[in-house]
TrEMBL record, chains A, B:
Organism expressing this protein natively: Populus euphratica (Euphrates poplar)
InterPro entries, A to Z: Annexin, Annexin_repeat, Annexin_repeat_CS, Annexin_sf, AnnexinD_plant
Domain notes for this protein: A pair of annexin repeats may form one binding site for calcium and phospholipid.
Protein name per its UniProtKB record: Annexin
Positions with a binding annotation for Ca(2+): 58, 60, 62, 102, 288, 290, 292, 330, 332, 338
GO cellular component, one term: cytoplasm
Gene Ontology BP annotations: response to cold; response to heat; response to salt stress; response to water deprivation
Lineage top rank: taxon: Eukaryota
Family to which this protein belongs: Belongs to the annexin family.
SUPFAM superfamilies given in the database record: Annexin
Lineage: Eukaryota, Viridiplantae, Streptophyta, Embryophyta, Tracheophyta
Keywords (A to Z) from UniProt: Annexin, Calcium, Calcium/phospholipid-binding, Metal-binding, Repeat
Gene Ontology molecular function: calcium ion binding; calcium-dependent phospholipid binding; phosphatidylserine binding
Designated gene of the protein: LOC105130279
Amino acid sequence: MRYKTSLEVIMSPIVSDSWQTIKRRVKTEWRVKTMASLKVPASVPPPYEDAEQLNKAFKGWGTNEGLIISILAHRNAAQRNLIRQVYAEAYGQDLLKDLDKELSSDFERVVLLWTLDPAERDAYLANEATKRFTSSNWVLMEIACTRSSHDLFKVRQAYHARHKKSLEEDVAYHTTGDFRKLLVPLVSAFRYEGEEVNTMLAKSEAKTLHEKISDKAYSDDEIIRILTTRSKAQLNATLNHYNNAFGNAINKNLKEDADNEFLKLLRATIKCLTYPEKYFEKLLRLAIKKIGTDEWALTRVVTTRAEVDMERIKEEYHRRNSVTLAHDIAGEASGDYERMLLALIGHGDA
Amino acid sequence: MRYKTSLEVIMSPIVSDSWQTIKRRVKTEWRVKTMASLKVPASVPPPYEDAEQLNKAFKGWGTNEGLIISILAHRNAAQRNLIRQVYAEAYGQDLLKDLDKELSSDFERVVLLWTLDPAERDAYLANEATKRFTSSNWVLMEIACTRSSHDLFKVRQAYHARHKKSLEEDVAYHTTGDFRKLLVPLVSAFRYEGEEVNTMLAKSEAKTLHEKISDKAYSDDEIIRILTTRSKAQLNATLNHYNNAFGNAINKNLKEDADNEFLKLLRATIKCLTYPEKYFEKLLRLAIKKIGTDEWALTRVVTTRAEVDMERIKEEYHRRNSVTLAHDIAGEASGDYERMLLALIGHGDA
């Protein structure tokens, strides 16, 4: 026997632990309830009635888009899943297939993405982001950094089921160099989600980050390690120490070369991990102000955040742009696409 | 809208999928049942009776080790968990703490490790493997490569609960260079577990592996990517192609320098991923034949494999050493430690 086991460590702190976990979950659930923009009516019809109405919306002369919006844009993920199940049983067809047949272009994409279960939707978006014509390091980073650890794991499970491969396998295969070095550990992470912070560690890792950045070693192993493995609470403490000790927010020091795509992704990663609402505000701002609106980004942010923190994002948007997000969406989008987006951000009747 | 969504892809293959998953699970369960060495009696006493007997074993003059073995070495993980729960309720104390108080040395370690839930046990072993005096890259690799994807994820969950950090966080912090480069993605992996094999890919990645190995670029990004992200079925196909195309098993070509610790770990990784029984046989052989038996390795392999594939490992052991594992354990271990090990490998009365 080489070394005496510290038996204090082997004891399982089962009880205190689950209490911590419960507290955290309650806190998260409460937060989500108040931050989501989705409006579900006080009394929701039973799923077979919703399924029947949707089926009616597809029939007859022309599709009834208004009816589709009035139902789907006002049901939460669990309710939408139930409607899909009941629909498949009643009409022998996947609701998504019928929506696909009846709808088109941006409206189709927003309805289909919204109707998917969140983990399935993220798996779909992530897979798209590894394909040649739709590849996007940003989408991969965004999914990896703004979902909870447990939700990211559900995405990886959904990815197996849907794509018969692992998420990290496709990400590793379709990226190279520094981008691979950052993205593979990001999508594979299962970060600790407790609030505990180790101050000594925060100070020493802030120093490490500053040294590497001063040397312009932006993709150094240590920078990658810290950003991809530390808990969000710990990382936040580290970056606060960075700011205090070196007089600059870290992202200021990562800006030397405005055209460096890796640095841009690194800054966005840090923003997603520490201030996701600001990240999404900027994404929406750029998507809307662009010549030729970026509907893919707009649709992605609205469908993925409506049930999570869209109220906070709207707040940031208003503060930064002096107009409401609803105002800008109404100005840039039109028709059923506009109506669906507005409903999802909470500007439709539930 | 930049690119037309391939809507065939967005449809969820829910039905065929869960059927595949069910078939796989049934297959795995059947395999485990026939490969495990653990013997559980046909009629198991209720957990409160086991708890009472264990409590009795601790009382009076001296501990009744025989009674402890006769109970704990013949209960599966679910049964042991129940006993722990009932014990805590009845006696207001964690069973593990009482076992710790009453037992000592190698016998203590085997009983405590065995009694832990498999995911908790692996989290404990992995944490130990990141500590200075007990650090072991091999233990980390072994846990990452020989558990199922789902079981490895349960280890990561147990690691959060027990150590208030993530597994990959500790592994990344306590390793450097090539070892970090290999171990972090190994412990973070959630490999696809389907049997599907892409033959084209297997051929091209076998070629890539051969090129890098010929250049002695043993820790090249591509080698790491292939070994840490591909499914075990895919990896097996790739390595078979390697053998066919280049006339040598890959591990033969990774042997140039017998003292290179990274190469040793790489070979062991490949063995764990493709032929775990052989890996464990060798580990047991070396642990037993060593001058001064390596009890830590012996205890680890027996406690972690008794409920999984110890029958297959015993078969390999017999074939390779011309004596049975039970014979060699009886020769090297003694007393209660020996009795516990023999019971776990199926040589005690259930």
